C-alpha cells in the first residue's frame, strides 16, 4: 500500500488518454496559450504505453469521471546521484479545485519519490499564476529563483543539431 494513498487518484490507463488530452488542452487555454498545444491522443498513448514508455501519469476522479491529471517523467541529479520526478503538468478542472485533488495528486508523486528512493520532485509554474504559487508554498515547496530556464526549439534547435 502506498503512503498518502487517495481513492480518487490512480495511475493513468489507456482508457484515460482522451480525457487527459482534453484536460491538457484545457490547461493550455488556462495558461493563455491554446495555439501552442498540439497534443493528440495518438501521441499521448504512444508516450505513456508504447514499447519504451518514458512518460507516466495519474488521474484524479470525481463523480465517476476524470477531472484532473499529472504527467511526469524521471530526471537525475548528478549532485545527489539519484533520480527524481519532473512534473510536466498538473491540472484539475476549475469546478473541482479546492477539494484536495491537487494536493492528492502531488502527495501521490511525493510518495512515489519516497518509495523509489528519489531525492526530489520538481516542476515549473508560470510567474503570473499566483493561486498555484501560493498553494505550492503552502505545502513547503521552494521556488528555485536563482535558476533561469533555457530552451532550444524549432529553428534554433535545428541549427544547433546541424552545426
Comma- or semicolon-separated keywords:
single chain, 163 residues, alpha+beta, Aminopeptidase, 5-stranded mixed sheet, 5 helices, 34% helix, globular, Diverse_Substrate_AcTransf, N-acetyltransferase activity
Q: What integer value in Å does the Rg equal?
A: 16 Å
**CATH topology label:** Aminopeptidase
| CATH architecture descriptor name | 3-Layer(aba) Sandwich
- The general outline is globular
Count of helical regions: 5
Question: Structural class, from helix and strand content?
Answer: alpha+beta
Element order, helices and strands? EHHEEEHEHH
Distance between the termini: 50 Å
Average predicted local confidence, pLDDT: 94
CATH level-four homologous superfamily name = Gcn5-related N-acetyltransferase (GNAT)
Q: What share of the residues does DSSP label as strand, in percent?
A: 15-25%
Strands, total number: 5
Mind summarizing the main beta sheet? 5 strands, mixed
